[in-house]
Amino acid sequence: MMELQDQQIGLVTDYLKKIGEYDNTYIIYLADNGPEATDITGENVSDLIRSWTHHHFDNSTENLGNANSSVSLGPEWASASTGGLSWFKAYTAEGGIRVPLIIKPAKDVLESEGTLESGTTTNELAQVKDLAATILDVANVNHPGTEYKGREVAPMSGQT
């Protein structure tokens, strides 16, 4: 899976270079947080989750791994698959919240003073909701507030 992601990202970056837009483009890459540990057959799951899953997915043995199946690892295998980080999704421990966030800024930002050097690793806290605020800021676009084209929208909650 990682090799395929690397290959596909390479195709995108090669194309951007070919058309002369690589230096003008931000690339943002992040992963999902931690493995899912809910075991719908286990004792520690609500009847609501169990019945919702049964209604919406085909978890028969023959269908496992297909798009309309939803089987999770359970807590034991979720813990084993975090690569040594503690806990998993739904917990604010490393295994549940620590994910990569890689940003390749446009060339003008890379050349500006105070910018992190390429390859820098930080332990700064960030949330997905901060990405939208940051992208709007970089694009010099103001969030519309609470209404857009006559429709109510959620106010911005992220920070740049």
TrEMBL record:
Residues 5-141 form the Sulfatase N-terminal domain. GO terms for molecular function: arylsulfatase activity. It is an enzyme of class 3 (hydrolase). It comes from the Bacteria. Pfam families: Sulfatase (PF00884). Keywords: Hydrolase. The keyword tRNA processing does not apply. The keyword Hydrolase applies. Its EC number is 3.1.6.1. Belongs to the sulfatase family. This is Arylsulfatase.
